[in-house]
Amino acid sequence: QTVVQGIILLPLRAICIVFILLLAWLSASIATCCQPGRGFLPLKGWRRRMIQTTLSGLTRVAYLVMGFQVKVKGKVASQLEAPIFVAAPHSSFFDAIICALTGMPSIVSRAENLSTPVFGTILSSLQPVAVSRQDPDSRKNTVAEITRRALSRGQWPQVI
């Protein structure tokens, strides 16, 4: 019985995940289309709200489709209370749960990740702090950018 359920559920879940991923890509593309100051200025207004609501909701639905239910205990710190949010160790796809639950903050990511198809567009919409492995000054530049965003008094989203 469980083998039959797996044979039926696995393709259905995979199709749902692909559909959710394409919706996330579409939302990210719309929100960042013709964006002034791309990457240098924070998203504002409807663009930021669209990223926060649609990507957060789609991420939660994707994890629910995969069979994960996440409950938050306590209160998530606001952007003004904690401009930098630390999540460690960050080495799995479960990191997206933290992003969804905290309102899709900016993340620190490898610069190479921004050029991947579909995922790169979604990642770019989060306005990440890009770390380049080829640049010898990358660590210093990353720390400076995180500091600049943290001291922006809420203009930039939280950095995770």
TrEMBL record:
Residues 70-156 form the Phospholipid/glycerol acyltransferase domain. It is found in: Membrane. It holds the Pfam family Acyltransferase. GO terms for biological process: lipid metabolic process. Signal peptide: none annotated. Its main location: membrane. GO terms for molecular function: 1-acylglycerophosphocholine O-acyltransferase activity; lysophosphatidic acid acyltransferase activity. The keyword Acyltransferase applies. InterPro entries: Plipid/glycerol_acylTrfase (IPR002123). It comes from the Eukaryota. Keywords: Acyltransferase, Lipid metabolism, Membrane, Transferase, Transmembrane, Transmembrane helix. One of its GO terms (cellular component) is endoplasmic reticulum. The chain crosses the membrane at residues 7-28. This is PCAT2 acyltransferase. It comes from Rhadina sibilatrix.
